[in-house]
Amino acid sequence: MWVRPPISPVRSGHRVDPPGALDAVVTLARAHGARFLDLTDLEMAPHHFYNDDHMTQRGRQRHTAALVEALRHEEAWSPGPNTPFAPSPTGVRGADGPGFEDLRALRHSWRVAAESETIHWRFSDAFSGAVRLRGEGGAPRIVVAGVELATRPTTGGWTSNGVVSARGRWRISVTGGAGGTLLRAVRLGSPPGHRDLVGYGPDLTGGVVDSLAPIEVFGGRLSRTHARPVALHPPPAVRLDHPLEVQHEPDDPSLHTIALPGFVWLSDAATRARSPRSAHCSPLRLLVDGTPTDKPNTASFLVEKGLHDALAHDLQRLVFRHVPPSTSAPSLSLDPERRCDGGVWVYPGDQLTLAYPPDRLLALRDGIGALTLSAVQMDPGPSVGLGIRVEADGRTVLDGQATGHTMLSLDHALDPTAEVTVHLEGPPDAWFLVHSAALREAGP
């Protein structure tokens, strides 16, 4: 796989590809069985780079985390919809045998069995527990330790589940069904002591559509198709125990600081430590002459070095510059967009609605079976739950609460053609930063 990395935002407006150059590179990569992944749209901040090209440690961490997420996303590895099931040169292939030459674009851990071809996994250690398989194409014949497992059709393919007990030398055999079989997942045992022979978690549990995720790949490029959350009310006012007092640096008249000891848990440092990609996500906005600064969530050292019209929420203080000098006292507000690096803030008493692209939901061919939510309570108050309500075509199908990383299963799988919305309801005195709100495909 060829990866095109992100670039410094200082250069992002100046790099222009020659006409047709990017398409030519992608075509060349695919012609040789490789993938091309374009991460240039990954949001990066100036403090993620030493210079125009080279990343700082934080920049490298962010890029690596994004790359891992992108590679785990199905579209980064999967073939097109019409990829054929090619015959094997030998007809019998072991788990460690060579893959098909014309299927190199498949996810590296998937397996393909042409019609009547058999794939074997051989073992010499004892095993007792569950065996689960999931795939597409013709339903295969599956034999585990001499026991034949039945397959069950699903909307998008087939599944097979069984419990076996084996000692000594034994094997798993999968013989391709009519037209060939694509194995997406083969798992021995149950989490956490399971072993995935083919695929990994999402291959077995089905597809995922996340309304918030900033790292999803389609056609080799990052996707930015996620809808913004819709808030029922404007953000609450920022309550302060004392008036804002601006301190001016004597050696640098344009550099100002404001002490904010009561909002450490909302600072960029606090959110960076509790977000998946170390993002600066303070929701506080500084209004100067009634206008918010242009660059919130900036690293404090960049502001101190001279970056104008920028704001840093650095633990117990705000650091900012404003040119020309302000003619009125500054004030604070909360970000009305509520978004940061794919996450969303749920302020006290907030009511937010998250929508999901209908065309994406159609990919959940076995129906929508659960909602997975990842939310962090940022304030230091007592731990409380975030209110969750899921509606399908205007009808409530799930009503509950979530804390931390929670999976809420639906009583019945939803049709993927349904119009699905997720409603988040914030408690009166709690602040939540939600990193993921994913609808999951119904399991086998």
Quick recap of the structure?
This protein is mainly beta and 444 residues long. It is built from seven helices and 33 strands.
Protein architecture, described:
By secondary structure, this protein is mainly beta. It has 4 domains: 2-72, no CATH class; 92-205, Jelly Rolls, CATH 2.60.120; 210-214 and 224-232 and 342-441, Jelly Rolls (Sandwich), CATH 2.60.120; 246-335, no CATH class. Helix content is 12%, strand content 38%. It has helices at residues 21-31, 57-72, 74-77, 201-205, 268-273, 300-305, 358-361; strands spanning 2-4, 36-38, 92-94, 111-113, 118-123, 127-137, 141-144, 147-149, 152-153, 158-166, 170-175, 181-188, 195-198, 208-210, 217-218, 221-222, 230-231, 246-249, 252-259, 284-288, 291-292, 311-314, 317-321, 331-334, 339-340, 343-346, 351-355, 368-377, 386-392, 395-402, 404-414, 420-425, 432-441. Strands 4, 6, 9, 10, 12 and 13 form a 6-stranded antiparallel β-sheet that branches. Strands 14, 25, 26, 28, 31 and 33 form a 6-stranded antiparallel β-sheet that branches. A hairpin with a 2-residue loop joins strand 29 and strand 30 (395-402). Mean pLDDT is 80; it is low at 74-108.
